[in-house]
Amino acid sequence: MPNNCVISSGLQLNSCVNNIAGISDLWVLTTTGTSISLASITYGGGNGEISALSGSSVGEFKKIDLVRNSAAVLSEEVNVVTASLSFTFVPTLQFQMPGWNQVYTDLYEELVKSVGSVFIVKLKSGKYFLVSPSGMYISAATINSGSVPGDSQLYDLTFVGDEIQSIPEMEVSTDLATFLSGSNLTVDRES
Hints:
Strand content: over 45%
Distance between the termini: 28 Å
Largest sheet: 9 strands, mixed
Order of helices and strands: EEEEEEHEEEEHE
Structural class: mainly beta
Number of domains: 1
Shape: globular
C-alpha cells in the first residue's frame, strides 16, 4: 500500500488510513422481545477475522443514528484475576443518539431492556468489528435536553461486555448487507 501520509520528520507510517479514529456507523441486534443470539461465528484464514455470522433465529441488525460530531467511543480493557491466573476482555461502547422522537425512544427502550445486545461497529477507516459476540448490557443511560431550541436533545448510552477474546474484525469486502447475505441475519439499512 502506498504511503498516504505527509510527515516532514519522525516515524513514517505505511498507511494513515488505518489510523483514522472514530466510529462511523453502528448497528445492533437486541434480545428485547426475542431470544435471538449469534448461533455461529466463522473465523477465516487463520487471521482471527470473522468471515461469516448466523443467528439462532431470524434477526435484524438495526442501524443506530449517531449524533453528528458526538463522542462515540469503542474501547476495551483486560480484566486480570491474578489469583486464578485468568483474564477476560471487557469491551465498552459509549454513544449518543438523537432523542425526543418516538422512533428513537422506542429504540432507546429496546436497547436499555436488552440483556445481550450484539453491536457491529464501522470505524471511519472503513473497518468493521463485531463487539462482544456473547452480548453487551447497559451500564449507563441518560436523556439530555437543553432549554434553548438549539440545545441537544439526545440519549447517551454506555454498554459493557465480558469476553474471552479481544474484539474481532470482520472481513466485510463490500457492504454489511452483502456480508450477511446467506445467513438468517439482515441489516435494516447501510446509511
